[in-house]
Fold DNA-binding transcriptional LysR family regulator.
Amino acid sequence: MDLRHLRYFLVVAEELHFTRAAQRLHIAQPPLSQQIRALEEELGVELFERNRRRVALTPAGEHFRRRTSALLGELAVACEETRRIGEGRAGELSVGFTSSLPFTSLLPEVLLDFRQTYPGVTLTLRELFTARQFEALREGTLDIGFVRYDGLAPPEDLVLTEIRRDPLRLVINARHPLAGQAQVALSELADEPFIVYPAGVGTGLNSRVRTLCKAAGYAPRVVQEAGEATTQIGLVAAGLGVAILPAPLECVHIGEVRYLPLRDEGAHVSLALATRSGPQPALLRNFVERVQAHLSPEAGALLRQQAAHLLP
């Protein structure tokens, strides 16, 4: 018994006429009759009552028709679902992002675009620090991540692809003597108390700040750690110190806070896509394609050049 036998049976069951069924199937009637007889012999029951005047289903045949119709319907659904998953038009995708990314236009635009383009895909979004995204990628609980990249070598078995650079801003209390300047140099902050992310969270920003301060001739004097950027901004407003954060966070408006550009070379932090190394499924490649559509022309071209394996 194979699918062909079942399909032949269903057409005969619908037509209740072997000649018309054969015409629908584009085969001769004798071979069709032989196939139905072989099916009945395999099952050990008669599926049709036949005489010169009519063809009718037996009770066993009617039961077999209902079950076979449902079976082939489920098979058709399974085949279509499988094709959609293979083409990246259905399935589940887990996406990680750092806390500052929702303050940019990139993440909202990409998510809206992807959901409209691929409505059959379920997106699971996870806000995670960069180091935790790396762990989740290795564990297989995350498919792709937007991470803050400090320029160091990526972790083993992971691939980082830079997609944009955000300038760093000095977050300073509005009553600070430097607050009225158009921009500042890190060398002017050598004696300032710093508010930073906790050392263990691995944001990628801490190492960038320490590198920049070292180039300016000092190590930052850390007086407070805070795991959320908005908390850091609030602590600056309270006069506890200064912070250095990506420019997209300038949209957090607190009356006692100013955001000042830094004059120092390299005063930026990179945003990168993090994926596992090796071939990627169509679903992930489709997502990266929508990311590319919302990058600058230069960044989009660079993404295609450096990470062709991530694109359809």
The mean pLDDT is 91. The chain has ten helices and eleven strands. The two ends are 40 Å apart (CA to CA). Residues 221 and 295 are 36 Å apart (CA to CA).
